[in-house]
Amino acid sequence: MTTAADHVPTYPSVDYASFSDDQLDAFHTSPDLRLFSNINCPYGQRALWTALEVNAPFQVVEVSLANQPDSYGEKFNRYGTVPYLLDNGFAVYESAIVAQYLDAKFNQGRLHRKDDVQAATLVQLVIAQFEARPWYQYLRTGDEKAKEQGIEILKELETIFTVNAKAYRDQGPY
């Protein structure tokens, strides 16, 4: 019998702090695709899910948000945020942009529906709902007002799926 655990995707992941300065410097000239993220960050999850969905050949570099190394901001992401993607020396910041980049590079833009302008607008509407700060605020602080705002966002996502995207539901989740 197959369980949900049998379908959990695996991916290479290494702690940022385990690399030497020379190894970190070499990332900028490496042809490898590296996703700097944090397993607890919802925005990092967006980038990770996209990388998995489009079968990108990537390595996750786990960055501590609680004890972020100074070198992360100095060598890589001057904003000090995750996710951050480094592709053959090219830097991509912010989760929505990372997701679009990965989709375009490895999936011909199918996740973002580039060939169907109406479906693409619905994708962008859903993406905009995930940009809402209550998600992150609630996860960090447990603030009840942020929780209620998050619940309202989930209700709006359900409406988008059941009403606005009704014509597209039979075409799959993406």
UniProtKB/TrEMBL annotation:
InterPro entries documented for this protein: Glutathione_S-Trfase, Glutathione_S-Trfase_N, GST_Omega/HSP26, Thioredoxin-like_sf
Domain of life, source organism: Eukaryota
SUPFAM superfamilies found in the cross-reference section: Thioredoxin-like
GST N-terminal domain ranges (all copies): 31-110
Pfam family, any one: GST_N_3
GO annotations of cellular component type: cytoplasm
Protein name: GST N-terminal domain-containing protein
